[in-house]
Design goal:
alpha/beta, Glycerol-3-phosphate (1)-acyltransferase, 8 helices, 35% helix
Length: 269
């Protein structure tokens, strides 16, 4: 273990070997390339309008949800929602399992808010702009010293009535495997005395079988991931809204309850 690492640092059990795409015969591969080109151009054109969402629009949250669903659709990702999200949330901590950078838009299509995200996401092309506009709360996973400041920031946002989204697994998994929920960020809900909304995300092929096409793992580049998703004929992201959890059992109990709720759910496309 190096000086920059610690036992808390999340490490995925998944690798690039988990990612599988269905390209088929050469004819289908050509069709996939053409399909990907169309989708990426459409997504780029839509992404160019992103600054509009920074304006104080009426029903801004509705516009953000619509935008996220439209962007997923441009990339060929169908969106399915199960359950009823909180209407007009005030000071809500949203947590989910973590598979892909696309999770940001899948969650945003249901409950848009400020994301707690790895610090370097701000430097990503395109996604970084979205992160800055969404007032992302950066977290340096290798630095435990910064964690209390991140928790304090989340507490302030929750107390001021903002929705905050976090991925407590701390890193991405392929969607078939998953990690443990780390309790640190749940402390913010305990201190702010605000409820936690768990979500379950799962990605599927057209036939309903689990898909790892969207998984963003290891040394995978953002561009390679976007191309892989856009080349797939159909990918469906299923978002299930689970019962609210109240912060009455401390951060450890709250984390365990949310993890059990998210990881015990079986979804069908």
């Amino acid at each position: 273990m190096t000086a920059a690492e610690h036992s808390w640092l999340p490490k995925t059990s998944c690798s690039a070997e988990c990612v599988r795409s269905r390209l088929g015969d050469p004819g289908r591969r050509i069709a996939a390339v053409i399909r990907a080109a169309r989708r990426i151009v459409a997504a780029a054109l839509l992404f160019a309008t992103l600054p509009v969402l920074a304006l104080p629009l009426p029903r801004r949250s509705d516009a953000q949800r619509f935008y996220c669903r439209a962007l997923l659709g441009c990339l060929g990702i169908r969106f399915i929602l199960t359950g009823s999200p909180v209407r007009d949330p005030r000071g809500l901590l949203v947590v989910s399992n973590h598979v892909s950078w696309a999770d940001i838009f899948a969650v945003g299509a249901v409950l848009p808010g400020s994301f707690v995200a790895r610090a370097d996401v701000i430097d990503w092309p395109g996604i970084g702009l979205a992160a800055r506009m969404a007032n992302v709360i950066p977290i340096e996973r290798r630095s435990l010293r910064q964690l209390p400041m991140v928790v304090d920031t989340v507490v302030d946002r929750l107390r001021n009535g903002h929705t905050v989204v976090a991925f407590p697994e701390g890193t991405t998994y392929c969607g078939v495997d998953h990690g443990e929920f780390r309790p640190a960020l749940f402390q913010a809900a305990v201190e702010a005395v605000r409820p936690v909304q768990p979500l379950r995300l799962s990605y599927h092929h057209e036939d309903g079988s689990p898909s790892s096409v969207a998984a963003f793992l290891g040394d995978d580049s953002l561009w390679a991931s976007i191309k892989r998703i856009a080349r797939a004929r159909v990918t469906t992201v299923h978002v299930q809204v689970l019962p609210l959890q109240l912060p009455g059992s401390g951060r450890g109990g709250l984390s365990a309850e949310c993890q059990m709720a998210v990881h015990s759910v079986e979804l069908t496309a």
